[in-house]
Design a protein that fits this description.
- The chain has 276 residues and is of the alpha+beta class.
- It folds into two domains: 86 residues; 135 residues, no CATH class.
- The chain contains seven helices and ten strands.
- The strands form three sheets. A five-stranded antiparallel sheet has the order 1-2-3-7-4, covered by helices on one side. The protein has a three-stranded antiparallel sheet with strand order 8-9-10, with no helix packed on it. Strands 5-6 form a two-stranded antiparallel sheet.
- Strand 5 and strand 6 form a beta hairpin.
- Helix 6 crosses helix 7.
- 41% of the residues are buried.
């Protein structure tokens, strides 16, 4: 059954993030909401939808997510002294857990080690600078954009959850047909590759991530993009450019990402620890 909150019961709190995300109670439980009216603008919601949808498609754990409407009478304060505007918002279900922060011992307790390669492949596909930026970038690493959820098996193991994709696809600039430029499609930088990940990314793990990605067809991309509400201000030309970028970027990575990652962490060694 698809998780879909339909209305907001009450406001709880907001946070000092770039999009001024708020926590609210809905008819489907507590959620974190990124609505229209945020200081970054509606294209942050488009980025969230695309990034999180692709993350889910390639087998990464994500929070349950949906698009729901903020009603005219809802009063939701956001960060930066702003209020949510009526219209479709991007929401994720609140779950117990904690943001990573950089402790490598916590990564060792992640049950599915293949998730690290999937995360790097995802971030490199969508040019996501907001976890670990490419080498040479002036941006700082954001280890808080990885969430660890303790598994219910009593063994102290974690599931890693990928979240917060509002800064991908060449943010902070507004999305436009320029996204399909060859400089984006054939960007040789690797995104999301924390130094703490290096020992968890053998050859087989990257291959596993690419196997999932090979199924990201034009039809699937169309389905993701078709859900974008008109109120998020993405015109037909930009939607077409986003599809073209994602398909051509995917083709480039299938041919090159093994080499790109190896140039950073050394040869991808088949003798590394077995992926569970």
């Amino acid at each position: 059954m698809t998780w879909q909150p339909t209305y907001i019961k009450r406001y709880i709190e907001c946070f000092k993030t770039s999009t001024g995300v708020a926590r609210v109670q809905t008819d489907a439980g507590e959620v974190f909401i990124k609505p229209l009216g945020n200081v970054v603008g509606p294209h942050a919601l488009v980025r969230e939808w695309i990034g999180t949808s692709i993350a889910r498609f390639i087998g990464l754990n994500t929070f349950d997510f949906a698009i729901m409407n903020v009603a005219p009478g809802d009063e939701i304060p956001l960060g930066h002294n702003r209020f949510a505007l009526p219209g479709p918002a991007f929401v994720t279900r609140k779950e117990d857990g904690f943001t990573w922060g950089g402790n490598i011992k916590q990564l060792e307790k992640v049950k599915d080690k293949g998730v690290f390669a999937k995360l790097v492949v995802l971030d490199t596909l969508i040019l996501n600078q907001d976890r670990y930026p490419p080498i040479g970038s002036s941006r700082k690493a954001n280890r808080d954009n990885i969430f660890l959820h303790e598994r219910g098996n009593g063994k102290g193991q974690y599931d890693l959850i990928a979240f917060d994709h509002s800064d991908c696809l060449r943010a902070p600039a507004d999305l436009s047909p320029l996204i399909k430029n060859i400089s984006n499609t054939k960007d040789e930088n690797v995104y999301g590759l924390f130094p703490e990940f290096h020992n968890f990314i053998p050859y087989e793990a990257v291959d596993g991530a690419l196997t999932k990605l090979k199924n990201l067809s034009g039809t699937t991309v169309d389905a993701i993009i078709s859900f974008i509400p008109d109120q998020w201000e993405i015109n037909k030309e930009t939607k077409s450019a986003l599809k073209k970028f994602l398909i051509e970027r995917l083709s480039f990575l299938l041919e090159n990402i093994h080499r790109m990652i190896s140039e950073i962490i050394g040869r991808l060694d088949l003798s590394n620890d077995k992926i569970e």
